Amino acid sequence: MLTSLNVAAREYHVSKNGSDDADGSMGHPFKTIMAASRVARAGDTITVHEGTYREWVDPKYGGINDLNRILYRAADGVKVIITGSEVIKGWKKAGEGVWKVILNNAMFGDYNPYREIIGGDWFLDLGRVHHTGEVYLNGKSFYEIDSLEKIFNPQPLKGAQDQEGSVYQWYCKSDSKTTTVWANFHNADPNKELVEINARPAVFYPKKTGINYITVRGFILKQAATNWAPPTAEQIGLIGPHWSKGWIIENNTISDSKSSGISLGADRMIGQNYSSVYKTKSGHISQLETVFNAIKNGWSKETVGSHIVRNNEIFNCEQTGICGDLGAIFSQIYGNHIYNIYVKRQWGGFEMAGIKLHAPIDVLIKNNCVHNASKGIWIDWEAQGIRITGNLLYDNSWMDLHIEVSHGPQIIDNNCFLSNLNLWNLSTGSAFINNMFTGQICKGTENERFTPYHYPHSTKVAGIMTTQGGDDRYLNNIFIKTPAPSYDIFEKANRPKRKKGTMDYGLGIYNDYPAIMPSSDYFISELSEVKLPVKAANNVYINGAIPYKNGLNELVDKQPDTNIHIEEKSDGIYLIIKIDKDVFGHKIKIINSPDLGEALVPEVAFENPEGTPVLFDTDYFNQKRALGNNSMPGPFISLKPGENEIKLWPK
Predict the structure, then answer these.
(1) pLDDT value, residue 627
(2) Which end of the chain has less neighbouring CB within 10 Å, N or C?
């Protein structure tokens, strides 16, 4: 049957010069992508030719398996843009630099971004209204302001990274018939330049769930009026599978989502912002309920997840580059370049990061570059069986990696953590192997939130537990103390002081944690605050980074200056670092899954999704490590004594 399906597969074409009354052949292409979507079936290809397509692609059908999917692709060698915006002309002068336009609401259909208010669970509006709309001048987005008066005397916005750009501001007012938009274009004439506004809530996103096995390849996808996407609501991204299985999103450029770029997240059947709407339960209880609602509605490997997100460039999104609660299970996210996430800082909340996943069961996050985000990678709730490997994280303003209220096992290996704060570990059951940490590390506990853990490689819940801290393994890492600005990350991240924890360079923050279970009658009580054991071995501490007092075979090198820094050159991103020769005498063994044991709470081994052991025998560049006791700590086997210049990205 697979053979007959493949033989019968068709290729449909879409062109700006086509017609939706055509048959979609090369000689008679469709005009819109949606026209092709209505006729394409499993095994078919939709090839979109050069041009800008202003439509919401809402796929009507999916494939039936990995061999018979529906492929949406940009034609070879041309630029194909799909955008959620519309070009706006007819601006009228309203003051010095200020122009206004009055729009008929009919142009927006049933979704008017200038009446749609951003909000939801864990969103902080900072005392003002925000809309999902946006104004763009020659592709660059403006800043919504909260009063018309401010438009005429624009001031740089506090918190915005681009202070000069933040004076390009807009304001809107809508009634039942019209929407008026004012914008300060300064010296530009909006009737002579390209001015666009958000008009659609998504660019490539099915309205129905269960549209499986779709590939989206090679497009420029931009400018969507997405709303806030918390884990307790439907998470709509600029592009996403909407609670489906087996999507491949690859080789695209994705930008200017009001909230999230790619969403692999939940559907509203799990709940829809119940905590903030009804205010009868805490957010954590509402989120716990979503897990059981998802299970009741068939949440499993057979029905959702197993997506591949690879080799995309994602930027200029104000919540996340990639998000996903529950729907990202068993997925692979690799080779993506994610940057400029949450840089306007016009609102607050607890969901902003380059990659933010809840319940990332057996997920692989590999070989991504994430920088200039609030948090680089944030994994939250039920991060069981996840592996984070070979990633480059730097210049992230809050932290590189946040692991929150999960119980493991979590594998974090061969990563370069190069921001001021590298790690906030508010979980248990992690293994950190062959990483480089050049900033501070924070650990903490959470004894008020019970979060689920699962049976191995399954969505079935095995129990719930609080987070005591500990049960972590730090093996073969390099910790470097570098001069960095001192600031209170907990204030920056709007976190209560009760979760402050301990923060420093190296592993001295664990000195009040035991190295082994204290006795045979030791047990984990869900109400206790007992500290779980920590294992540290074969690590290197440089320039004042503090070791764990119970560490084994640790090297403390008092090298005064590593001269470590990042250089962004025309051909890529480079690490400059000076390493003392004494470090190279510290030979260690390659780590294997049996060295890690099991995560204590779920009693699950550190292993591959198929249940096989992991052998950590390669480095950041996938180069083979020396066998026996001749391996090097850290992510690079190519390090040499003295000055090193290493091209980190692209690999």
Answers:
(1) 86
(2) N
